[in-house]
Amino acid sequence: MKRTLAFILLILITISIIVSCTSKEEEEGLIKKVETVASTETDVLDARKNVPDNLPELDFGGARFKVVTHIEGDVIPTRLGEIVNDTILERNLEIEERFNVKIKVHGDPNVVNINDYAAKAVQSGDDEFDLFAGMAAICGRVVVGDYLMPWQNIKYVDFTQKWWSKSTTDDLTVNGKTYTAIGDFSFSSLYCTMCMYYDKFKAADYGLPDIYDLVNSGKWTFDMVSSLVKDVYSDLNGNGVKDPEDYFGLVSDPYTDVTTYLWAFDNPVMRKNAEGIPELSIKTGKISTICEKLYEFLFNNPSTFCDYNYAGVYGKGTMMGCEFFELSKCLFTHGTLQLSTGRFRGIENDYGIIPYPKFDESQERYMTMAEGSHTILAVPKTATNTDMIGVITEALCAENWKRVFPVYYDVALKVKGVRDPQSIEMLDIIVDGRVTDFGYIYDGWAGMSFCLEEMFEKGNTNFESYYAANESKVRLHYENILRYFN
Predict the structure, then answer these.
(1) What is the Cα–Cα distance from 73 to 70, expressed in whole angstroms?
(2) What is the pLDDT of residues 307-363, one digit of tens each?
(3) Are residues 378 and 360 in the same domain?
(4) Which residues contact 462 (CB under 8 A, 6 or more apart)?
(5) DSSP letter string over 383-422?
(6) What b-and-e string marks burial along 337-363, b requiring 16 or more CB atoms within 10 Å of the CB?
(7) pTM for the full model?
(8) The domain spanning residue 323 has which CATH number?
(9) Domain residues for 384?
(10) What sign for the dihedral angle of Cα 236, 242, 243, 247?
(11) Residues 168 and 224 in one domain
(12) Is residue 22 part of a domain?
């Protein structure tokens, strides 16, 4: 009852925020969305809260539970007053009271500093911290340093529960050992999920078909995107040259936005063999086609803009699509879900949220990834109070699944972040399509996860030559990683 009443209060707060910053028509439409979510969300919360976490009622005598992380928002509220942050605070207080612990955080946005801090603490043999929530894209470096213990050594952690990513067991467990895991405590793994955005006003102006219908019919493919974008261009400054001052069909960051296409096209770096061991699998029958068609689309198409040298408001080559989309200077762009509740909140034009396209219609589902800045969980070898670590980590993941994810996903995203009911359906497709790749999590910039970036920056589309030049050192890198699982 207390949680239901709290949620209703949050809904009322959300309505008051909406009313204060929208026109009458927008207010009525958004309030209707809030009411629709509210009518079902209390049932969802009630159903989730009744799912047992199966944890014993232990008393840890006021012990410290210290998390080392580069994203403090996964652990403690960073902006009190926001719905999600209030829910995180409530989660922490209840877990602290239930198990008599004090949750502490050592945070530093510099991921190198966090890795160094963790490594030095373990090397010294000190029981300095309990949970490492490091950056997913470089956490593999800590594994190579032999600083972590397998999660299988930790009691009370149940990877079969709903609050642990299925990929934790399917993709990140080898020989019965899991050193890094993705659980719902890693709240950033949700809002870092990659997707696409499109300007609905401009889509209508250019006579494009209903994008949502294309997605739902399974026809939202790379060739379809190419065909829709090819004629969307306007030389706004009239100089007869394609430049940043013009309007484009698609603007893309040449880094993460491009890298995501490997997984969107179901072409991961590694797959498990029949023995359950990850193997280098990026060299498929379609990878050369992917490289050639993607490069042609992004860099040689007059209707697209993707430039490694462009220095915009967010830095050289960084978040170009975000910048152009904010200024209504492109029809399509890529980004994370977080943009919908952040930078894109002030966009005047109505926009839609859609998944990355499939490679072709034979691909079974839409796929995506959470970009590598999100946190991934690990336990230092020097940890001694492993029972407490297991209980508190499991409780944090469970409570995020029960209360924090629903509030963010169904209120912050589905109500405040999207502009139409169809986008809500798209969110479910996007989040259900998230995949994890052993080759990406343990890449550490020594594997092949960023091959598209490396090739395209040099104007190279010949994957065969790239693979031949890098295969030996990449295989050696992953062999060194897998050694710790044997």
Answers:
(1) 9
(2) 998 887 777 767 888 999 999 999 999 999 989 888 888 888 889 999 999 999 999
(3) no
(4) 288, 291, 455
(5) ---HHHHHHHHHHHHHHIIIIIHHHIIIIIIIIII-SSHH
(6) bbbbbebbeebeeebbbbbbbbbeeeb
(7) 0.87
(8) 3.40.190.10
(9) 51-190+372-417
(10) positive
(11) no
(12) no
